[in-house]
Each structure stands twice: as C-alpha cells, then as structure tokens.
Amino acid sequence: xxxxxxxxxxxxxxxxxxxxxxxxxxxxxxxxxxxxxxxxxxxxxxxxxxxxxxxxxxxxxxxxxxxxxxxxxxxxxxxxxxxxxxxxxxxxxxxxxxxxxxxxxxxxxxxxxxxxxxxxxxxxxxxxxxxxxxxxxxxxxxxxxxxxxxxxxxxxxxxxxxxxxxxxxxxxxxxxxxxxxxxxxxxxxxxxxxxxxxxxxxxxxxxxxxxxxxxxxxxxxxxxxxxxxxxxxxxxxx
Length: 238
Fold this sequence. Notes:
By secondary structure, the chain is α/β, with parallel strands linked by helices. The protein has one domain (6-237): Ribonuclease Z/Hydroxyacylglutathione hydrolase-like (Metallo-beta-lactamase, Chain A). The protein is 18% helix and 22% strand. It is built from 6 helices and 13 strands. It has helices spanning 56-59, 77-80, 96-100, 109-112, 194-204, 222-237; strands at 11-14, 19-23, 35-38, 44-47, 68-71, 88-91, 140-141, 147-149, 154-159, 168-172, 177-181, 211-214, 220-221. It has a 7-stranded mixed β-sheet, with no helix packed on it. It has a 6-stranded mixed β-sheet with strand order 8-9-10-11-12-13. The radius of gyration is 17 Å and the shape is globular. The relative contact order is 0.15.
C-alpha cells in the first residue's frame, strides 16, 4: 500500500464557535477520530488527539499557538495517540491507568489496527503490527459536573459510560455546543454495555444542544441529536 508524507497526514477545517476540525484523511471513516480544537481567551482545548502516527504539534501549528489542554473523551487508541505531546492532559478517573500505561490490548489497538483501516499508510517507520500509544499520564482527573475553564468559555463534564467506562462529553451551555466523543455520533455506535448506554441516552436526551461535534463522522444539529437518541432507544427496547 502507498505511503504518504507527514506533511499531508492531517487536514483542518475551521467551523463556527471558535472550533477547528482536525482529521486524518487517510484513515477510513469508521476508524477516523475527529480531533477538535477549541479557542479560548486564556488557553485552548483539544478534544481527543487521533492515532498519534504523525505528530500533531509538528504538523498542525494551530495546536501550539497558546497553552492547550488535551482532553480524552475516552482512551481508545484512535483518541489519545498524541496526548503525550501536551503538558496538560485530562481524563476520567476510570481510565487514568490506561493513559499512564497504554497497551495494544487496553487501548483496543490489537483488535482494530491493521493496514486495512488505512487508504494510504502513514510514513515510515510506521508498522501496524508494532503500533502502540505512548504513555501520557493525566495531569488532572475530571468527572461529572467538573468544569474546564478556558477563560471566556466553560465546558461542563458529563460522564456518559457505555462505550467505555470513562467516556465523557463536554457541554458548553452558553453556546449549545456539545463535544460528544463516542457516546453519540451520526454513524454506527459501539455500545459495549447496552443497559448503561440506554440509561445514558435517556439522561442526555433533553440537553438543549444546538450543534454536536462527535468522535466520528460529521457534526449535526440538535434536531438530529434527538432523532438519533430516539432511534437508538426504540431499537434497543423494541
């Protein structure tokens, strides 16, 4: 399979609300994590950081413009690959041990990472059979109700287990913006714990979201958010 150079590995797209999408276009869509950069007055925030096969800090200058807090929606390989590049790293307590000691097993890399998840391979020396996430011990643990303060912007942490035990979402009430991780996106969900997932879907249904930026697939509005939740509940409850 053809390889591409590091300088074209990432693409960026500027959205509303001071949000920038960072993507890895040569990873197939189902496996491709959405990396979200959010501008703040005092510091910026990064929600997830991709596979880590190419340095974010070296090839996406945006993430180096001011101090940047890297938040893990959860600790699967496709979401925390570049967290080690940031001085401030946040994660839910339930998955802190994975951040500190990632393995191919506990990050799910051994289940999913093969050459087949790519349309073109990362630059050498990358090899799928040797891929591992680098250690990135948390500098702060975040749980339900905690707030991430960017100076002029404040994001509330919602603990939403079901996809993983430490899955979180980030909610900005002032703008109606939700970063939903892998809890909800407009694509096939991976619900390892269906009873818990159902409970969480019902809990978050009435959140007055305006726009949702998920861990995978395109962003969507509040109407679609409620449609997706209703469809999930109907499917699981028959």
